[in-house]
From TrEMBL:
Domain named AAA: residues: 36-212
Family indicated by similarity: Belongs to the ParA family.
Organism domain of life: Bacteria
Entries under InterPro entries matching the protein: AAA_dom (IPR025669), DNA_Partitioning_ATPase (IPR050678), P-loop_NTPase (IPR027417)
CDD domains: ParAB_family
Organism: Isoptericola variabilis (strain 225)
Protein name in UniProt: Cobyrinic acid ac-diamide synthase
Stretch forming the signal peptide: none
Functional summary from the UniProt entry: May play a role in septum formation.
């Protein structure tokens, strides 16, 4: 695997030199739920939030988990990425959070991946940010909307938009955990302190149980010292919040998005697919998902 190195005694280390644990294939589940809700969050754009939502979701589904992807970005990229056309939606997550008579079952769509469903979004959702400002309990409309799904799924992954606005605060209020994808480039760390401050505010005021599940380095290039330095600095600053798994940079990810498939379906044997499977196993081993 490209993201791990072999050391002399045969033990593997991760990219910052910690021993790489062996993450076992998760045991099958005999029943489903209650779901753990995980928000994919980073206010910086283009860091791999949507790619991680789709591919972690697909990997967990491969391991027999029932997974719901919640597209909570008006760009609708997570919906497109699993084969839903956002322009042809009768109902989207916007209707679910804004209209009391819309039921979750009316909005959820199945995907080509067994065990992977999606609550799709489109540009309508951008109006919610403004309309919610005047609502009662405006930070918890997503949490309320997702309640009926908790018994049916093992994991609910919420793909956030690149901002710390009201939609993202809703995702953090609904979530049990936050996963922070971080692009391996020099300025990546700049926004993380602000993100963590926001997470702590939501924890203090709205959602005391909220945990940071991990920081996931993405677009890692093993050929550059630079990638390695960024991850080393993340480790210095955040310790074992840094996951062992890193996601390498490869054009197979944009290729898979064009094909509207998870990489695990588009190129099942590619190291990028294996990296997301390892992420799924690591999160299950950490107790961060079912
Ligand atoms: N590991 C990777 N290697 C190469 N390209 C990647 C990788 N991960 C994601 N990409 C590509 O980078 C672009 C941005 O990724 P993605 O859409 O997942 O980020 P995002 O954080 O969701 O962006 P936004 O903030 O706009 O929602 C996409 O074109 C995606 O295909
Ligand atoms: Mg995105």
């Amino acid at each position: 695997m490209t993201q791990t190195a072999l050391i002399a005694d045969g033990g593997r280390t991760d990219v910052v030199g910690r021993p790489m644990p062996d993450f076992p294939v998760p045991a099958p589940l005999s029943s489903h739920g209650p779901a753990r809700i995980v928000a994919m969050c980073n206010q910086k754009g283009g860091v791999g939030k949507t790619t991680t939502t789709i591919n972690l979701g697909a990997s967990l589904a491969e391991y027999g988990r029932r997974v719901l992807l919640v597209d909570f970005d008006p760009q609708g990229a997570a919906s497109v990425g699993v084969g839903v056309n956002p322009h042809e939606l009768d109902l989207s997550v916007y209707n679910l959070v804004m209209e009391r008579d819309v039921r979750l079952d009316d909005v959820v769509q199945t995907t080509a991946i067994d065990g992977l469903d999606v609550l799709p979004a489109n540009i309508d959702l951008s109006a919610a940010e403004v309309q919610l400002v005047g609502e009662v309990a405006r930070e918890s409309v997503l949490a309320r909307a997702l309640r009926p799904a908790l018994d049916d799924y093992d994991v609910i992954l919420v793909d956030c938009q690149p901002s710390l606005g009201l939609l993202t605060v809703n995702a953090l209020t609904a979530a049990h955990g936050v996963l922070i994808p971080l692009e391996c480039e020099f300025f990546a760390l700049r926004g993380v302190a602000l993100l963590i401050e926001t997470i702590e505010k939501v924890r203090d005021r709205l959602n005391p149980a909220l945990e940071i599940d991990g920081i996931l380095p993405t677009m890692y290039d093993s050929r550059t010292l630079h990638s390695r330095e960024v991850v080393a600095r993340v480790h210095e600053a955040f310790g074992d919040t840094l996951l062992h798994t890193v996601i390498g940079r490869t054009v197979k990810f944009p290729d898979a998005s064009v094909a509207a498939e998870p990489i695990t379906a588009y190129a099942p044997n590619h190291p990028g697919a294996e990296a997301y499977r390892q992420l799924a196993r690591e999160l299950v081993a950490r107790g961060d998902t079912a």
